[in-house]
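Think of the structure tokens as a kind of shorthand, similar to the way a musician reads notation: each symbol stands for something richer, in this case the local conformation of the backbone. In the example below we present two proteins back to back. Begin with the first one, reading the sequence and then the tokens, and try to describe in your own words what changes along the chain.
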Amino acid sequence: MRRAIALCGGGTKGAYELGVWQALKELDIDYQIVTGTSIGSIIGALMTTRDYEKACELWGNIRMEDVMKDGVNLTTTIEGMYNQREQIRPFLKKYVKNKGADISPFIEFIDGMIDEEKVRQSDIDFGLVTVQVSNLRSLELTKEEIPQGKLKDFIMASASIFPVFPMHKIDGETYLDGCYYDNLPIDLALKMGADEVIAIDLHTNPSHPNYVNKPYVTYIKPSRSLGTMLNFERQIIDDNIQLGYYDAMKEFGCMMGKQYQFYGEDYTEYQEIIQNFVGRVARTESYLTEGTFSRFVKPGDSKKLCGNIEDHIRKTENAYTREDYFTGAAEICGEIFNIQQNKVWHLKEFIGEVLEKLEEKEAYPDIDVFDGRPGMEITSRLAELKIRENSDYITGCIYYGYKAGKIDLTEQLGLLTFLPYELAAALFLLAVD
């Protein structure tokens, strides 16, 4: 079996690919083919020679000055651009003169980073994508098809994202970034003989949605936006490397979560608690077909509570599991109680952290909202509570309301209507307490 790694283009967002590579190394997942477009072709050349340390050096040290002369850091904020107002004028002058940014530092940077002979001698096949301007012809080139001495040139051609960067000339021909044809070269990897492909996208919306559920493609994409393609802020780059590592570990089943990370092996000892939680969700949702709601909701219709939980589940091609639902509710709790996201949690540690944020019963006087006459009065009181208080306080009220036996059918219907998000968190707390 021949496995390929297909790497997406996306400028500095490519730091994400280093994080995925780190996970592949830890999981001892090998490969025989690498394909890449733009920054993906640069990282791909390093993956071909297994120069992981060089890739770490690239993303650990790269600055805007290594890519553009008099460059501008393209952040997404007005403040970020305002802080660079003095740099914008010289940048624009050189931009007009060069028909794109002056990337002579980047050419030197790549020249020192990639060893052509090492790429050619590697037993790993390498391919890239670029576009020939004269006839607008897409080119999918393997290392054998690239003329001797021209490998770095064609890598630069693959990364010439016009109009930001100037088009790249090789022997009188002009070339554009391969993203204008295929920004994630899965097809090229398959044409080169891959039996399966690990595709690393840099976009939250898949570049190739038709490949997401294929049995021969493991599709890894960011669980949140990676920002802009030319943002050299150190923290952004470091965060994207870490996210790539986390997302890859989740894709291979070693971690659970979407915005959070949980050790997958912990779930075995939590099966009884997980079953308890899912049972609470199932019974609570079934009440939607009771009382006045029965006129509007039919058995089996989509429910608000599950909708909130499913929004917090990492999407896969498989049906949701009990573990997925438990994880989704854990993430809701984490958001509500402001639990740190940027780490890997053991379930016991995470649950302890959440329960620590929960105050004593006396801190939630509004549990009395569940006392009094049934009917529309409870719905108006819950609606008023939602407007007046934060989610962590409301969750505490629901939790202690259940513990005190104050919440029956009428109250549950009101909670499903007005506070399904906080209700999911309270049911999680009841299951793990």
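Once you have a description of the first chain, move to the second and do the same.
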Amino acid sequence: MPPASPVASAPASITHYENFPVASWLCPPRLRAPIAAIYHFARTADDLADEGDHCTEKRLAQLQQYAADLQQLGSAGEAAMLMRTSWPHVFGPLAVQVQTHRLPKRLLADLLSAFEQDVRMTAAQTRYTDMAQLLDYCRRSANPVGRLLLHLYGVVNAKTLIQSDAICTALQLINFWQDLSQDLPRQRHYLPDADLARHGLVRSAIKPEAAALTPELRSLLGELNRQARSLMIHGTPLVHQLPGRTGWELRLVVQGGLRILDRLDAMQGRNLYQRIKLSKLDMVAMLWRAVRM
């Protein structure tokens, strides 16, 4: 369940929240504290949803309490909440940043709703029926991170929000297609039913240990890669809207996502069996492309 940041250090692979610019030297010093507070909020919620041996009911109960504590920030009951919360190391720093930077709690709550959905769908082995449903998940699991960072940078208008959403959604989709070999055995199915059916595929046959790379399956995975690439390119003009080092950081993020797509295309569906990682040579190519932007 990894939301992806459009203003983040270029990762060797896009997983969890490591693409957050928690302590990046490219991140303006004045924004390191609020970005770190957002990171720890999201990372802790992700761990509640995904780590340990808790049952589904326990995970959901913790996420719901976490969401309730979030809503107390900035209210008359904030002090009492900070005294009793199980996560003072998260909500203490976050409370300061919400007040200082007027962070929209709605965006933070959207992240939690995506985590809760993932827990419920994994437990029930529910699948995404179509791409619209999967993109709605991305809207809540990935796009809020970009919007929060744009809020901190003070670059918020209709165009930049659309471009940020495109990059964040692209990064989330890239993460899904990069991680097929790991997600499918864990009963996490992000390939939408409608797309499978359109290519004449049956979900039960798509297992890393058994799936044959048929022309239909290669066609589906190639199509999904092209969709993610189209979204990334649509959001690319945002790199010119962000000032100084921040714009350079975003260039590296965009090029990192595009480089992973290059590697996925070259694998021609073998990402069902293995997860790619970017090499030092890939990093050089990303830096060169970032400069050319």
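Compare your description with these statements about the second chain. The CA atoms of residues 214 and 269 lie 9 Å apart.
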